[in-house]
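Everyone, study these two lines:
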Amino acid sequence: MLKSHLRIAWRGIIRHKGYSLINIVGLAVGMAVCILILLWVEDEISFDRFHTDADRIYRVVSENEGEWWLSSPWAIGGVLKKDFPEILKTSRYTARSALVSYRDSNSYESVALVDPDFLSIFTFPLVRGDPRTVLEAAQSAVLTEKTARQYFRNEDPIGKSIRLNREHDMIVTGIIKDVPGNSSLSFDVLAPVQMLPKDVLDSWAVECETYVLLDKNASLPNLRTKMAGTTVKYDKRTEVKVVNDLEPLRRIHLYSLNGTGAVVYVYIFSAIALLVLVLACANFINLTTARSGKRAKEIGIKKVVGATRAALIRQFLVEAMVHTVLAFVLALLLVLLFLPSFNNLAGKNISWSIFRDARLLTAMLGVALLTGLLAGGYPALVLSMLKPIRTLRQVSATASHRSLLRRMLVAFQFTVAITLTIGAMVIHRQLDYIRNKDLGFDRLQIVTLEMNPDLLKGYESLKNELKQHANVLNVTSANNLPTGVGNINPVYWEGRGPEQYVIMNFDAVDHDYIDTFGMKIAAGRDFSEDLETDRRNYIVNEAAVRFMKLQDPVGKLFSIWENEGRIVGVVKDFHSTSLHDEIRPLVLTLNQEWQPAYVFVKIRAADVRRTLEFMESVWKRFAKNYPFEYQFLDDKFAAQYSSEERMGQLSNYFSALAILISCFGLVGLSSFMAAERTKEIGVRRALGATASSIVGLLSREFMLLVLAASAISWPVAFWAASRWLREFAYHTDIGLQAFLVSSALVVGTALLTLSYQTIRAARANPVESLRYE
């Protein structure tokens, strides 16, 4: 019986190549998109789950007055381990760029400073070395396999000496496997945090990440309650009410501290995957039920000779599954073909080996089975219930029902297509808003250089030499990028004593900082190079003034910790963090206690290449042991939104594919409807109807459905876009343009799709049309 069903299915494919091709290609594209998104989602949710004890690893986070920080005090790890037996192991973690040198090889690498327990908490397998001892010595270093190959090639690295930042001689004690792409922690070199000064490690400055491993029987709610006041208990410098909490390792990538993050895109693209698959299934159902009249006589004869409804259902399901299997094979080929491009677009590194993952293969086969059941189930039920007498007379008892279903499915397809297109346009609009947003400072033509010890020693001379070039407009330095100020410290001001500290962001800057970035002074003055007292003074932003509720802040007492000074100026608010966040209170200081990490050079747009060559020549005189590496600040700003950029590009492609799949259905349906109405068209033409009126007649119903889809999709898209834009504290308005353009785009595409079949039918010879049976 199965063999007979398969033979019938294959004959149907051969006999009706056009419809079969549309069905199979439409299903294949839908399944390919679904599988690619499935691979992407799998990669996203797999972050940090490869660690053996991932469910018992937590990051210590801090909160003050509703603001959360992923960092914690340097000293808190040891205190937590001592005070709470539920915490078995702790490790600090701070990653920074450092120059790694071995013989003639020099390159900047990501060096993570950690405690010896780090490799006992996390599962980063060692190729060489003992995880319990490789980080015990203060001068030890563990390299990833890639880093070891880069510096040592065919040599045995163990026992060899490397230098960090031309200052610290480190002995390679272990080789670790390369960090997986689905790890929240990324590094090239591991080194002991004990290489930092003891006063730093014992301090309660909130400047590093701390991870803990809990006992299997630990009660997380009780532990969180008990440890909440640890900073307040031990940090005697301040009465700031810092609350300590634990964030599960497995939530770090998907969720930000405020409860949203990458998981939003997981939900969005999972929904898109399902919708695109349903679109493809809708095409199959539409075309199969539309052609049921052609098969009515076949069904009637089979029922007359004794075929049961169950047997007919099996036949149609087998036919659907044959189409689905062929589409699934084609979908896998499409996935294999486009996976490299998809990786590049999504910023992933999903490899071919992922297809050897039994769980994913099962999920993919599940997608194929679900598609077959969705696509074939309804047509099987509808076609199998046709009455023999009516089918043999070629009168369908369910024609109006099928017609209503077809209209609903077409409307659904274009509702999805328009919704996705509006979503893609809103994302594009927000990204354009971000690119053109006035940040309160000039980020264009700013060359960013990383500070190093040699450069720091001769910084003033370097600055003066650079400014001699006609294309160099200004030079300054700071502890942070202006687009990502992350320093926090307790402050107080006049009218609020040291016993009433609050937390504020701050940045240690150079005299020319405000001038270089084109920031505006709202009150008071800029720092003066001629006034030595300004090294104790401060400039605050307008948000800080509002927070402090000072009517006339200039001249008022202000202090970071015990560093008392005066407010000499108020800078207009600028975006010192991502546009996801509100502008926060910010303090600028000249205090060199916090050494600058970056040098910023403002240059003219003309002859950039020669200007950079000049900068490199000056660099080599002051820091010849360090490679000249630069980046434009605008590129660093764009990198803050790389995730949104990738999501925007993916949304564009998915919207285009949704429209494409919907148009597949229109091609088949318009072809079928034209064939069904061939004689009617011939009569109309014979009676004098013009070709344009025939095109309008055949297109009218589809256009009404597309317009109905617009009416349905607009409120859905508005709700979804509004929810997404809430992720940004500063965002564009949705605007009517996205809705109008999206609907016009889909309507225009639908018209183009319909035009070939309708014009062809309308221009056919009436004589031939009247002979058509």
User: Anything to note?
Assistant: The chain has a mean pLDDT of 83. Residues 309-346 form the longest helix (38 residues).
